[in-house]
Input
Amino acid sequence: MLYIVILFLFAAITLYFLLGGADFGAGIIELFTSTDNKHRTRKIMYQAIGPIWEANHMWLIITVVILFVGFPVIYSEMCIYLHIPLLIMLLGVIARGTAFSFRNYDAVKDEKTQAFYTQIFVYSSFVTPLFLGIIAGSALSGQINPKATDFAHAYIFSWLNWFSVAVGFFTVALCGFLAAIYIVGETDDVDEIKRYIRKAKIMNIVAVICGALVFLASGYEKVHLANWIFGNPVSLVAVIAATISLGVLYLIISHKRNRQWIRLLAAFQVCMILISVGFSRFPRFVIFKDGSSMSLLTEHANDNSIDDLGIGLLVGSLFILPALGYLYYAFKKKDR
Output
């Protein structure tokens, strides 16, 4: 049952990145859109994420619940050492959701307040994935120092370092890339399709640049990232698959073929990146500066709690997944 719980944990993390990350990317795309095109971008983004943007946070809630119930020691350690970036990320989620609701559903469409909501929405859409990446980079790279004797080294420099920040910007770029790709299928206007394909290419270039910065920062921070990613066959195959999928993606985009395949390839590429990063670290979930780590296979709750959690997740998925699938189907059918 423990492996079932772990499977749900990684599935929830992946789905939050693919779906929630694309939602954040919508705000990122809007942030870097020219003034002349902002209104059109905002309208298409609203059509795409408006019906289901809140549902995507379900995956974050499931992740937190699994960690809290199934791996309480890991949960508490992360909340202690990374409480600052976690707080900023959660505030970003709240601010973004609030601004999105008021901007699109407010009864009074005042120009000044609309501009204020828009600023909150786009900047929180940037900040939230930035700190999500910082948290992931800090937890997996051995930046947390459990032997620190002062506040700064224990709770500031555990996440405020070149490597974690570079991972954060890489995460932002991936979210923007996913959003641009997903939006391609939301409009039939040829000019709009070309515009979002161009944005997707730009965001992909930015992601490559940020990925290079991650490698440079890993050398500076003495994080052995090359061995981490290329040191085992599974991660190496995942990197090769991600590279090939990117080439196929550009080929399909260039010939303007099936847009559903474009979305699937983008999601596949991001999944391969996550596998290449996470496989060599498994089952370790938090790695400390002194070389020690916290494993999902050892730092878990008692067997009864794991069994109850696993059963709850299995039974809950029978109700949640069909309902969620129907939600997507219903709104997509309504749009047509």
In short: Strands lie at 284-287, 293-295. The chain has a mean pLDDT of 85. The radius of gyration is 20 Å. The chain has one domain: 2-335.
